Amino acid sequence: MSEEGPGSDDHDHAMFPSDDLFHVLSDPSRRTVLFHLRQHGIATLEELLDVLEAVRSEESEEVDRTQVRTSLLHSHLPLLEETGLLTYDLSEGVVRSPNLHDDIGEWLDLAVRQQLRYESALETHDRPDEEIEVLLVDDEPGLPETIGAYIERENDDIVVTTAASTLEAVSTLEETSFDCVVSDYQMPAISGLDFLKAVREKDTPLPFIVFTAKGSERVASEAIASGVTDYVQKEPTSEQFDVLVERIRKAATGD
To answer: Which PANTHER family match (predicted)?
Structure first.
């Protein structure tokens, strides 16, 4: 293992690439390890295993401690050491991380808060016996009303509110809560992806589906990079609305 601590010049946290940090914090187990170390600075491997096991047990009834240990030792700790966020010594059974502060600590706290908000949103959206409120945004005259009418006619548990522009949609979101947003991609004034970015800044976990005829790998990659929940291409048949409904249910309920 490395003898040089994570506070060295080779691991200057101020120069930590954002993409790498997003990758590290994307895994809940790594977030749990880092969050524990931020509070205590040092921990034994057994302590970290206990923490991870406790978190896993809240999510499922059966927890395989051997599997948790394997993931910690062969996946999470090596990656976190490689990125300079901690050091560990298997012979001592000790993990140290003195530099989880300032920018890194703020990013970690943000990631944990966003995870809690996302889990809370999933609990709220997991309501199979209640209506699913959908905001449908499209600037093509008459199209959102047509789509909304079809969806409501075929699905008793879905209520669709339409908006003819992103500006109208923003105003609607300020007044009403929804379980899912469905938006066209190319619209005047503010595009669907710019609208998505605005939604993410205000409500990170709100499911957002891009529904557009402009199908291309570039559009899909832009949508994914912007944090879209799903991406559905428009087709000239009513079956496309059934596909959209399926994606709405999946996004809104977390199933």
So the answer is: CHEMOTAXIS TWO-COMPONENT RESPONSE REGULATOR, STRESS RESPONSE REGULATOR PROTEIN 1
Contact 98, 7 (CB under 8 A): yes
- Model confidence, pTM: 0.49
Nearest to 90 by CA among 77, 79, 99, 76: 77
Burial zone of 190 (CB within 10 Å; 0-12 exposed, 13-18 middle, 19+ buried): middle
Number of C-alpha atoms within 13 angstroms, CB side, residue 35? 18
Q: Determine the CATH number of domain 18-123.
A: 1.10.10.10
- Dig out the tokens for 180 from the structure: 């899912």
User: CA–CA separation, 152 vs 139, rounded Å?
Assistant: 20
Q: Which CATH superfamily is domain 132-253 in?
A: Response regulator (3.40.50.2300)
What are the 10-residue block averages of pLDDT along the chain, 255 residues in total? 41 48 74 82 92 77 84 91 88 85 62 53 53 91 89 93 87 88 79 79 82 66 73 79 91 79
CA–CA separation, 103 and 12 (whole Å): 11
